[in-house]
């Protein structure tokens, strides 16, 4: 059987799931029809349903086994990381501490949970940025980061304060932003008000992710300009610290 050439693990997994579904349908097996959300997209829950079906199937079929491996590889890779990232975001927004998150993940310390979140958030942001249409940012009227002439530590404090001002400015356009972005930014602002944190790595990673989500959602006009200003200032902060 010819196996189509695809370009990403997600596309490979969906192609494999469609192949399994079609083989079973052609053979008269309608058991996969009982699973919910089995459509053209074959997202996480549907893909897992296909793998579970294949493991329960007593008929030996090389293509089924290979397709099952393709699907499982995707589920254990990017899909699992996306689920983990989004659940950490929800846990934090609902008030969970990093220690609680670490315990839920089986990690020994809150620092381990923070490091995992940073990695997952930046990986997701990078993936979204790659998918963003080339040239979009060039069409925006983005401003260059401000230049300061004080010492590095003082400059970093100034940039951090400007970043928080920009986050608050972005929240003024909440109606134009994805819901998860609004929820995450609101949580960050509330946390800063309670704990007076400056600009820790977890906050910077969350901001990177939020900017990527804004770009991916196709937000333009004033909120997009503010978002790009945040991105510029994050770059400047990184260079100063």
Gyration radius from CA atoms, angstroms: 22 Å
Q: How many DSSP-defined strands?
A: 0
Globally, the shape reads elongated
How many helix segments?
9
Describe the structure.
This protein has 241 residues and is mainly α. It folds into two domains: 9-90; 100-240, no CATH class. The chain has helices at residues 9-26, 44-56, 62-93, 98-105, 110-131, 152-171, 179-195, 201-216, 221-240. Helix 8 packs antiparallel against helix 9. The longest helix has 32 residues, at 62-93. The radius of gyration is 22 Å and the shape is elongated.
Offer a quick outline of the entry.
The protein has about 240 residues and is mainly α. The protein has 9 helices and no strands.
Give the SSE map.
Layout: H1 9-26, H2 44-56, H3 62-93, H4 98-105, H5 110-131, H6 152-171, H7 179-195, H8 201-216, H9 221-240
What attributes characterize this protein structure?
241 residues; single chain; mainly alpha; elongated; 2 domains
